Amino acid sequence: MSAPHHDAIPLLRRGFRLQWEPAQQAHVLLYPEGMVKLNDSAAQILTLVNGERSVADIVATLHQRFPEVPDLEADVLDFLEAAHGNHWLTER
Amino acid sequence: MATTGSPNAEIRPGPPLWLLAELTYRCPLQCPYCSNPVDFADQGQELDTGQWLDVFAQARAMGAAQLGLSGGEPLTRPDLIELVSGARELGYYSNLITSGMGLNRDKVRALADAGLDHIQISFQDAEAAGNQLMAGSRKAFQHKLEMARAVKAHDFPMVLNIVIHRHNIDRIGDIIQLCLDLEADYVELATCQYYGWAHLNRQGLMPSRAQLQQAEHVVADYRRRLEDAANPCQLIFVVPDYYEERPKPCMNGWGSMFLTITPDGTALPCHSARQLPIDFPNVRDHTIETIWHHSPGFNHFRGDAWMPEPCRSCDEKHEDFGGCRCQAYMLTGDAANADPVCAKSPHHHTIVAAREQAGTPLDQVPPLTYRNERNARLIYRG
Ligand code: SF4
Ligand code: SF4
Fold it and tell me: Which ranges of B28-103 would DSSP assign to H, the alpha helix?
């Protein structure tokens, strides 16, 4: 799997749902017979994935929110690549 | 984490994240590896719609997020659509686990409209004859194929589940290919767990080690091909623990995250636990909160104070929790014993003997006992 392209538009794969779970105090990703509890940064990124924003948009939005975080872009790209590799995401 | 010797009552488990609702034991098929209790014909009355919706709401409030709707055949419940919409409103991710019998195009559409998230269809084989041998029905195979296509046409993610045993394991490549042709998103190749009906039929179902190794080879080969083609379909191959030297961490620990409710409302920490000589609470009498945290049934095997040797002094006890309680009970007569799959168990020879038996030619093996009411009564009423 290679790093996602800047104007690629990621989308949650069909059958995947992201939601906040109060009992776990976390966002979780739900899919057929499975559930992943997301850490904060994963949730920050995935909640921006909506099938409209491009990878560049997502990075820019997070930059605005967290201007003090170094290497933010590399982290986001790494995460998106891994999420693709897990088949959580597709592209539009 | 529990420490050695702490009384069970002090252990505060996390929430039941997974709820399995066995809506009914009714089923038009008769699989000889069915996980339903062997005395299913004598079970009590099914919960009604309101009672199920109340169970869903209570478990959801405690934190349950994944909901399995199974059986028996859940499609025999006339209120299934109502239950699915209720689950959706509560915020569950709902999974329908079906044989595909009783499904038709209109129902697939209605389930999609009601907010069902995913459908799992079970197949018995890659061909009609093998399907009939196992499920006791002739027309089932064609119908299942048609329904799998309808499920995909409605944009559902689809899991195809095939129970693997000595009669179909040599065709595992054809089975995978069939699933790929049907565009499954996940393929579960599950060698049966020898509980319930499968235990009665163990000799007639368990594959030999040679068959298993060959099958693992075929699966690995398909995985490589899928990866090369960037095909997102995942192959999940569950091998029988009879060929292992350490048991599986059954249900991630007793009463740690799974909650099963049987058709009559009995609450279980695992779907096969009903066979254990333990009194399990019923949702008609107690809230889920009380059942989960305070019932003797759910606290029975929490923590590790209940463990006898060799588990008690074993440094792996927090990894596998001593294995499966049902398997320990069936093979040793005491549910607290180490799962005999473990090489440290003094009963491990029962597993070794079963492995040796697995090579017996089919014509010397007793015929399969099919899961139907007549057999259920014959076996349990004598
Ligand atoms: S395993 Fe077979 S007989 Fe048992 S409920 Fe499922 S489809 Fe019906
Ligand atoms: S002795 Fe018990 S705890 Fe240790 S590995 Fe075997 S089953 Fe697990």
Answer: 49-62, 80-90
